[in-house]
Amino acid sequence: xxxxxxxxxxxxxxxxxxxxxxxxxxxxxxxxxxxxxxxxxxxxxxxxxxxxxxxxxxxxxxxxxxxxxxxxxxxxxxxxxxxxxxxxxxxxxxxxxxxxxxxxxxxxxxxxxxxxxxxxxxxxxxxxxxxxxxxxxxxxxxxxxxxxxxxxxxxxxxxxxxxxxxxxxxxxxxxxxxxxxxxxxxxxxxxxxxxxxxxxxxxxxxxxxxxxxxxxxxxxxxxxxxxxxxxxxxxxxxxxxxxxxxxxxxxxxxxxxxxxxxxxxxxxxxxxxxxxxxxxxxxxxxxxxxxxxxxxxxxxxxxxxxxxxxxxxxxxxxxxxxxxxxxxxxxxxxxxxxxx
Length: 340
Description:
Layout lengths: L1 E4 L10 E4 L2 E4 L5 H9 L3 E4 L5 H5 L4 H17 L14 H4 L10 H4 L15 H22 L1 E4 L21 H11 L5 E5 L6 H6 L6 E8 L21 E6 L5 H18 L3 E6 L16 H12 L5 E5 L5 H16 L3
Parallel strand pairs: 1-4, 1-5, 5-10, 6-7, 6-9, 7-8, 9-10
Antiparallel strand pairs: 2-3
Helix pairs in contact: 1-11, 6-7, 9-10, 10-11
């Protein structure tokens, strides 16, 4: 199996998260990459830099320029925090339908494209996010000749929308992979998200598209889990979205039934290629979700996905328990290579 990565993905150091008013240690740490590389047997190739056009196919120019420039502007302004920490957000509740203006101060602009306080921008954030998107782009361009390519993306991406970042995600790597597959000649692409949390960004990007199916199995946001506002079963977009929220404490049987539904829907959609948003944070030991999927459950998840028989780009998303992270990713990828 080909694996795509770059040491530049290690440059992002979130330092901390501001969560429910508290400064807590960051969980999306660079060590995740080392643990995955130790466990996954792959022929590793370097990520190429994605062209700007591949990024603007899924993100606004404004978001891209903001992520590129805001840390430098923050440091130049002399703020005491060593990371960009927004404190005001131009939501509809604030603007009330009025046209918002670009704030003069960088501490005002800091929240222009952010939608939470957890996702801080530091000195290497842009370089790492750009490289992660490049890994997804590189993998998508190689998959037709390889069958399966794994993109070791960090930071993850499925919470990033066209015009915003949050949930520890800055650029939407899975969406970049999907649009690249379309540009490479696929008429229809399926994105199946098996991260423990709903990929609100990916869903939003492809909400009205008829050439990309988005399906996700995830912990029910109605039970109090991120992203809270979206990810419910009645969200269908233009008819090419399927969400399968599952209850907290669900294990393999419920999870695999959800994956089966998504695979059947992708097949009915007529997908010619598959992007897997591969998060492994639905495992019992993971600190970021309440689900109970086992290593065997992840292997069977991979077997179901591999059973579609499609060229597959697996894009790394979440998974935060360092001791089990690598083996869980490896189990899923082995399952894809051993389809049911």
